[in-house]
């Protein structure tokens, strides 16, 4: 993933969090929170992919081939 992709994910994450906070309907707010969680996971996965092999600083291990 490129840096613009990271920026996109970060923008979408913040947008979903803001929408969830502003929405009065509990069901709709839940949908926005679920989307935010998916964007947060995608960013965490991106960090894992970009970590050096064997680096556990982010709490995940990567196998070296």
Describe this protein's structure.
There is one protein chain. This protein is mainly α. The chain has one domain (3-50). The chain is 69% helix and 0% strand. It is built from two helices and no strands. It has helices spanning 3-22, 26-50. Helix 1 (3-22) packs antiparallel against helix 2. The longest helix is centred in the middle third of the chain and has 25 residues, at 26-50. The radius of gyration is 15 Å and the shape is elongated. The two termini are 21 Å apart. The model has no long low-confidence stretch (mean pLDDT 81).
Average pLDDT: 81
Oligomer designation: single chain
N-to-C order of helices and strands: HH
Shape descriptor reads: elongated
Indicate the proportion of strand residues: under 5%
The biggest beta sheet is recorded as: none
Q: What structural class should be given to the helix and strand makeup? A: mainly alpha
pLDDT < 50 runs, ≥5 residues? none
- The domain count comes to 1
Which helices and strands occur, and which strands form pairs?
Blueprint: H1 3-22, H2 26-50
Jot down its keywords.
single chain; 65 residues; mainly alpha
A few lines on this structure:
Helix content is 69%, strand content 0%.
